[in-house]
């Protein structure tokens, strides 16, 4: 497989594509589409079509996975177009109508990458409508004003609707330069706006991948080898034939990078229930190889052994941290760990494929449809142009659908039968065959002088690498070190040394919402708290003393602009809103943590108040989150994402873990893969900084500081957890 | 294959299905009512919740042979046009993220309000505890429940 995906590279490549796309593609295509012949329409850009009925369609290229791009993206277009929001219709942009990379959805990048492009598209359409109005009125464009899908002649006060200008505007030249609004004049951006498809969701009309039906379709489930690199010896489907609706079984070959498929036998039936019933009676013999006795417990022992040595990959070096550590008298040396995690999207993996000798059609949810389409074409030996991909809504992404193992499986099954096939994973398949967030361990060392000034900081991150999983053993960019574990460590320390070591494990790994930022921010934000405590300093004030006087800079390796003052600001905002400096009730304790989510250009903090009920037994009284992600497009969407991110991270801090025994995942449902339930949810508030900086991303920013803020609160209460989920250290919450 | 007559959203349907096929798959695959969602099939998530004679039931656990003449209500039948007070409250509070769990949440609240006119916080917690939302919309679900309770008791 030639196509490689690297989270960091993806972001850079996508940025470049995003910035250069716009005007080169602006071609008026008025009245060209068949449905537009009768009525008149004007499509000055692939993402935007205006009909003379007044309907303005925005085709959203980024995938909607619950993060709200189907609202924020049209809002940006509508803002510059001065369109009435009521006229906006939102559609999923058909795959193939955009440039490569335009559909990719991950890393909280959608708004951040597309902001300029979307504004220009809206502004260009508006300029053409204004020029059409000016020609009609024999006046100049500057004498025209726009608002709510109308142009007004500032002199005569005449008005005309956009819909009436559509046919004329389509004939005009596309302006090369358009003036964008000053953010100060935004009227829609910054206004809380409901999800564009909220009515469909609330009435059951929204169609997710799992709801799609294709004529002649059959259904499949797969019995997979429980061990990733196992092989199929033989299977016997004679009992399946007794199940009504059963059609046949076919094998699914295993595969290595980029998508690791377990060897499997697909059970095909004319309905999903029959397929599930037939699978129960299918007999399969597997060759599990020699790698079938490993466990997560053994893995953590290997992690610990590795952590005391030198990192395999040196990541960031400033000064001489090991020497400074050795020479110091005040020092700390601690270890933090966190487990494998599953995504657990509410809509389990599923996909539809129809394959003929030389063509293929796909239906379903994909966060990176280019990667999936190209790889599947190659796998089937079919020309890329002969693969038609149909994208759908997704019942949750969280990075799970960046991977497309489920789509590849569907394609491999469909290749063997002459009907479209819908593959569905049941919840056990979903939890046992995930692309797991890597298990990880961090050895953290720091030292300070007699005045309490930090002198040395060392961070050795030991984990099971994602890059080695998706790119194969020859992977470049193996270390997963964003989140304060590289040159982006936000605290000012003269001697810093960070590194990464990979320890192999036979389990598929992948990106789970905020992956490496979460993984690294926990030890960074806990260690700084431990140092403050050791120095008997107030932990918030201690952080601020290291952040507030540090000017913004470009991080050395990763080349992100980082402003420690913006971290200080969100910390202060969270502290103020939770009442950090007010007297605390007896047995109430607080913890805080802040961070820079580098590639989302966002800064986030959480403050958590707990009540200690007994040693290691507590209640979460309140959680306050503060975020600064530049200009906020949709405050309602931002709050929803920060709430959701906080809940996702609370699950990770308190209860979620994937364990492996005999190389098999132990957990198999939401009964044992625990996530937050409604009744466990503590009160939560979200606050954000009003800012004029360009917008950043938000989908992942609510996660990284939850676990460290909670651990810091528990430490303040007398006992510091260093292992997630904290229940592993005997903590109990009510 | 046996034939079953079902009353769903005040309409009569006929389904040819295996006696043990769960109502969930009958609704989704045979009757084309895909608003009811599959999340786990083992009663661990609540995504498949429908009302059976006004009681919220996990449709993945109810076999079609046991539906009898019960009145089944799914999200598609809660109101004609999305104007049921629960749907309106959900819209006002802007609850959904991905939206996948919300049909189950809403139908469960419909059952909650059939059982209690003015449920207490404990009753709300007890009834909602089994409806998972991986997107984490719990704070808003609670707010919307309070809003609808206020609305219907006005
Ligand atoms: S699908 Fe029925 S409870 Fe999960
Ligand atoms: S809104 Fe996505 S699972 Fe609830």
Give a structural overview:
The complex is a heterodimer of chains A (734) and B (154). Chain A has three domains: 7-198, Aldehyde Oxidoreductase, domain 4 (2-Layer Sandwich); 209-290 and 349-424, Aldehyde oxidase/xanthine dehydrogenase, molybdopterin binding domain (Aldehyde Oxidoreductase, domain 4); 296-341 and 436-733, Aldehyde oxidase/xanthine dehydrogenase, molybdopterin binding domain (Aldehyde Oxidoreductase, domain 4). Chain A has 17 helices and 30 strands. With 154 residues, chain B is α+β, with helices and mostly antiparallel strands. Chain B has five helices and five strands, in the order ββαβββαααα. Chain B has a five-stranded mixed sheet with strand order 2-1-5-3-4, with helices on both faces. Classes of the chains: A alpha+beta (734), B alpha+beta (154). Chains A and B meet through helix 5, helix 6 and helix 16 of A and helix 1, helix 2, helix 3, helix 4 and helix 5 of B. One FE2/S2 (inorganic) cluster sits between chains B (96-102, 133-135, 137) and A (66, 346, 396).
Number of helices of chain B: 5
Largest sheet of chain B: 5 strands, mixed
- Helix/strand class of chain A: alpha+beta
Radius of gyration of chain B: 15 Å
- Low-confidence region ranges of chain A: 1-38
Task: List the helices and strands of chain B in order.
Answer: EEHEEEHHHH
CATH architecture of the largest domain in chain B: Roll
Helix content of chain B: 25-40%
Q: Please, how many helices of chain A?
A: 17
CATH fold-level topology of the largest domain in chain B: Ubiquitin-like (UB roll)
CATH topology of the largest domain in chain A: Aldehyde Oxidoreductase, domain 4
